Sequence to fold (192 residues):
Amino acid sequence: MRSLLLLACIGLAVAENGLDGWLRYAPLPKGNRPNYGLPSGIIVLNSTESSPVNTAGSELQKGFKGILGNDLKIGGKSGKPSKSIVVGTVDQYIKAYGKLGKLPDLENDGFWLNTKDDTIQILGQNERGALYGAFEYLSRLAQGNFDRVAFVSNPSAPIRWVNQWDNLDGRGSDHGSVERGYGGNSLCKPSR
Fold:
């Protein structure tokens, strides 16, 4: 009985407290790693402390450390960005490295994620878009999804919101409805 109580106490001591939520960056099992080379650094195209691009670089660094155990250094734009993650806006990228291939249209807060090349590009239409792109990339890594992709993601609503379970369908009084009706009408006005 004592050993059972001791095991229960140890389990509580190391249990997850939920404080980190989805940003906990839990390590992947050793067998679930990509079969290609990972980036060796992160290039942040705006290192201003309050910049969402700078935040994206910090989150990428924490995510790689937690998920894969890789300690990537953050640097600024210098030389060729080979074997790095470049995070910033499209305009910042063009200013730093010149031309960028043809991209589909990016809307406000949209992002381009390209993992097909040696250099991983996470480029937003604006700085918030770059941050959203970094979280998309980290979400893929956390799920063990190392597929080589190149795509644009544009938001389907004008404001990215917390998980409110809102439906922008216009079924509520003046707004959309909310799943299961717990919260009344949606907080967001549907786009029409």
